[in-house]
Amino acid sequence: MSLREFLSEMEMKREITHIRDVVSTRFEISNLAMEFDDGPILLFEEVEGYESGVVVNVCGKRERVCFALGVGREDLHRKIVDAMRSPKPPEIVNSAPSQEVEESDLSGLPVLTHFECDGGPYITSGVIHAKNSNEGVENVSIHRLQILDESTLAIRLVPRHLYRIWQSHKERGEDLEVAISIGVHPAIHLAAASSPPFGVNEFHIANSLLSGNFKLVKCLKVDAYAPAEAEVIIEGTISCEKEALEGPLVDILGTYDIPVSYTHLTLPTKA
């Protein structure tokens, strides 16, 4: 199941507003997204300086999330609980369309700068997969990612499951390999935002939410997996020792948090 399939269905339901004017990733797109909060999906077709467009507000309404999962509002909670109780391993495929074009850096991605005093452009909805190389424990989660340069990001890790896996690698002096997926079906975002017990793979929850119609692909350069139909897959490593100043960024309360030193996430060198 892909984001494109979901957007096609939303198009038929007239849930998408197309923006054909040229817009900037600096402040303009984020401002329009806030103005249309709880409104339609916004598809920006002409983004200044980039070949690809930007889509926002995909999960902006509960009704859209319900449609993505094939349930009514009254059954949404039960659907999520059942998927968390009965996770299903997805099929692993050898290749995916997202791997057909390789780029060596992040410069081609239209990453948004949301507010004037933000520390820089931020990926805010990337789905991150990682696993403990010793124990085989896997985690899928969403963390804010600040673009520092064409091949480096700062990731804000707080003491949850990904932090626990990274800490285990740090104690062994090992970097942690990860995959960051951008442009995925809403069910995958929902699974990544869930809170199952440590050790439960959220991709398995996503597969249950999608009734077994979810596939993963093995990454090309790191020991991690990504949704086979993701629009973009970023492969990289979270350093066990390098740190960078991350922030500020407006948080969920609508206020700026303070810059803090967090870990480096670096793209692997091109073969």
Total beta-strand segments = 14
Strand order of the largest sheet: 5-8-9-14-13-10-6-7
Strand count, sense and barrel status of the largest sheet are: 8 strands, antiparallel
Task: Specify the overall morphology.
Answer: globular
Question: Per DSSP, what share of the residues sits in E-state strands of 2 or more residues?
Answer: 25-35%
- Classify the secondary structure makeup into a structural class: alpha+beta
Q: Give the CA-CA distance, first to last residue.
A: 30 Å
Task: Name the helix and strand elements from N-terminus to C-terminus, one letter apiece.
Answer: HEHEEHHEEEEEEHEHHEEEE
Look at the structure and give the mean pLDDT: 94
Cα-based radius of gyration, to the nearest Å: 18 Å
Helix content: 10-25%
